[in-house]
Structures are given as structure tokens and as C-alpha cells.
Amino acid sequence: MKYWVDLHIHTCLSPCAEDDMTPNNIVNMALIKGLDIIAVTDHNSARNLEAVIEVGNRQGLLVIPGMELCTAEEIHLVCLFPALEQARTFENLVYSNLYPIENREDIFGPQILMDHEDNVIGKETRLLSGACKLDVETAIKEVRRLDGVVIPAHIDRQSYSMLNTLGTIPSEYFFKYLELSKNCSIDKFLNENPSLGPYYYIHSSDAHFLGDILEQEVSLDLNDRTIESLLGLLR
User: Fold this and answer.
1) pTM (2 decimals)?
2) pLDDT digits (tens, 9 = 90+) for 11-57
3) SS (H, E, C) the chain
């Protein structure tokens, strides 16, 4: 069965996201746009996942627990997990590998923590948008150890892209799916990168603003609307 998805969305915890990216706003906007499944992928953190998942459960939207990791090589990886518990376990590893840099709200913006009623319950003081000390290989290994899935993020971009940074998508990482930016043409991309033809591709919004969340643009054929089915397809 076909389900409409957007698997790369940031909340107001990500310092570059607008304050309106609250749990309820994200879920309600996704529903307005006709989506069935979303993934919440804040930079190097999972601390707003519980609130968005709770709102999604209440509103009938499946929310995949995720994170957009920035590795030591400054490569962005979309990491998706089977449950909140595994996402938190990975977050503990990431937090132990963050550099001790304080967030500067005047430069990077606030990193807002929220509950399921969109109440502000705190702010993350550690800068989340920079690279951590985990290298790509270690990060992939640890996500998969937790039964999660890794998708290289926005590989068509000139920054924070595995393809641009490494010059290739290493076959030894055994990726199935690669992510392209929302407006990137797959045909044009493959014409420029014919060696990457064997992969599957998914567009995501990488939304930092409510209006950027995808419409019914990307669908996946799943047996049912569950995290297990989605991660099984992506593995």
C-alpha cells in the first residue's frame, strides 16, 4: 500500500529551525499536507522526539524517531530508529562525543525543548549543529547495532554531503537508499553521477520551516503503516 512520507524534518530544537517548528505545528502541518508518515531528525539530538511522537499518536500520524547526525568528517546522516529507546541510546553516544561548545543564540538561534502541548520546558545549551567526534564508519555501525537505518543526507549538496566530502558513496557501507534534496532532479543527478545508478533514492524536505514540509510528493509502498515496515524497506 502506498503511504506519503517526509523522512527529514527538524523541530525548534535544531538551532537553524524556526521557533514555530513545535510538536503540534509539525504534526498538524503534515496532516494538512496529506502525509501518513514523518521522521523527526533534529541535529545531533533526540530530545524533542517524545513530544512529537505523542502528538502524532494522538492525531493519527506515524512519527519515526530519528536524528540528523553530523559526523567528524562533517557528513550529515539521517538515522532512523525502531523506537524511542534506541534513539535515546544513540543520543547518549552522540552527546558523549559532542565538543564542549556552548550554543550562541545570537548567532545560531535557540535550541528549544518542548512537551506534547508545545510548552517550552527548557533549552539545550550545547551547540547541536556542529560536527561530533564520531566518524562515519563508527556512526553507521552503532545505528545498525540498534536496528536502525542510515541514509546519507542530501548527497547532491556541496556541503555536509557524503558524495561531496568523500567523492563517492563507499560500497562497503551497504546503503540501499540515498537522500536527495527536495528540488533535486533524480534524472539530472544520475546523468552527472552514473555510477550511483544501482541505489534507490528518496526526496526529503529537510524542513526547518513549516511551509517546507513536503506535500504528497514522495510515497513508499509498505505492507502496513508501521515503523517495522518502513525500516524493513529502507534496509
Assistant:
1) 0.97
2) 999 998 999 999 999 999 999 999 999 999 999 999 999 999 999 99
3) CEEEEEEEECCCCCCCCCCCCCHHHHHHHHHHCCCCEEEECCECCCCCHHHHHHHHHHHCCEEEEEEEEECCCCCEEEEECCCHHHHHHHHHHHHCCECCCECCHHHHCCCEEECCCCCEEEECCECCCCCECCCHHHHHHHHHHCCCEEEECCCCCCCCCHHHHHCCCCHHHCCCEEEECCCCCHHHHHHHCHHHCCCEEEECCCECCHHHCCCCCCEEECCCCCHHHHHHHHC
